[in-house]
Amino acid sequence: MQILNLRANEFYGPVPESVCRLPNLMNLTLSDNYFTQVGPECRKLIKRKVIAIEKNCIAGVPNQRSYSECEAFFSRKVTCPNEKSLNYVPCKNVYVKSLESNDIKSTVAAPPPRSYDALLPHKFRL
Question: Which Gene3D superfamilies does the protein's record reference (predicted)?
Answer without folding.
Answer: Ribonuclease Inhibitor (3.80.10.10)
